[in-house]
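Bug: token stream looks shifted between consecutive jobs. Job 1:
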Amino acid sequence: MINAKNYSKPTGNRRELISWCLYDWANSAFPTVIITFVFAAYFTNSVAEDQTRGTSLWGGALSLSALAVAVFAPFLGAIADHSGNHKRWLWVFTLLSAFGAMMLWTVEPKGDHIMHGLFWVALANFGFELSMVFYNAMLPFLAPGNQLGRWSGWGWGVGYLGGLACLGIVLVMFIQTEIPMFNLNKDASEELRITGPFVATWMLIFALPLFLLVPDTGDNEKRITSAVREGLKSLGLTIKKLREYKGIVWFLFARMCYTDGLNTLFAFGGIYAAGTFGFNFQDLIIFGITINLTAGIGAIIFAWIDDWLGPKTVITIGLTGLVVFGSALLVVESQTLFWIFGIPLGVFVGPIQSASRSLMAHIAPASMRMEFFGLYALSGKATAFLAPALLAMATSAFDSQRAGMTTVILFLILGMILLIKVPPLNYCIPPSPAP
């Protein structure tokens, strides 16, 4: 394994950056197969007593997991900045996520396995989200400043494609075949439960290049007790002196708003398509796969624009596209028009996500990157309840799904307005880090 005690200047080594991108390919299998498409449907349909309660319990477990991430991410990021050996932290949370996914095999289609299943999926999601803190923060250590956009976009695009590739293999090998591989017993839902171990194996195999070929990004090795003490002290000072990081603060608030909108769009888009446009389950699966595919393509294409015009511009373009096409979906009536205006949404979703990562990579102070990516994770989780709650209230008040989905557009617009306050990249970082 390559080791580097001091790796503060990015070399732009293509082999290392490709290995970094492969980690996106590796871990995107978890949200695609487990959280979105296969295991979530298995839990709500076969483990829980009914779909309504299953959906509620599943959402509650993920919400508690997200809350834990919001609490721990800033602290762990600050500690990592002082402990060195950043890959060790990434490895720990990757293993935690894979272990949680592996244990989903033990969740049988029985009512007394509900809490068992919720525990393991929440633990796996907790590990997945925290691994992203350390993975994202590695980017500015590896890619030169003028290439942050393209590598962030390529990594995000590869991640979408990797998740879809894993989903496709799972469908062909286990779910849509009469006799699943390994002669799995469909009466015991083994063809669905196997997705946990399969995703865990996928994650570990494709994460190996990063752990074997990429030098560590930490340049200071300290005992963990000292790192904890200094990290928590540093985080406290940073929070007290956030005024010195006004550009970063405006960006985190902007991202908090538009990420709430994006997450709500993903969570309720299928419900809206089914309830207002009459989509059946097969339609929803095809639409979801198409959106993921276009999001990956969009992230890859906009990667060059990110480096050319800047990540803030890419985010603004993406939010504008979502507002325009999303607003159209609020007024059209036919399924055909829903497809026409719905598919382009993915083209803008991917670039927003990848450009947000590259913008944070640009503006986070070099000595505090893990800490600020911890705050970045916090901004994506802290108010995750707000947009869904307002959507539910509007839907109930007006007895209309269209009225409810309008709140998503409002969150995207608010995020775009707050983004205006983010100054040019050169002015986001104070001359020297806060002491």
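Job 2, same session, no restart:
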Amino acid sequence: MLTSGEINDLLYEVFILAVQLGGPVLIISMAVGVIISILQAATQIHEQTLTFVPKLVVIGCVLIMTGGRMMQRLQDITEQIFQMIAG
């Protein structure tokens, strides 16, 4: 049986993992969006797809580069949770 302290520790670890996995993708996406917005303001081209396509490409590249590490971290936390439940 899990104690409330163990559950709190696990929830904290899962929260930190979510920030670590989602943070880089969100920050890079925001940076690309700001850069493209500045370029759009300078050139006065206000096309909606102009921001979508570069963000999609950059996020895809980031996920390709870091996806293996992300999956390993998720697998580790899942195994840890199952071990806590089982024993």
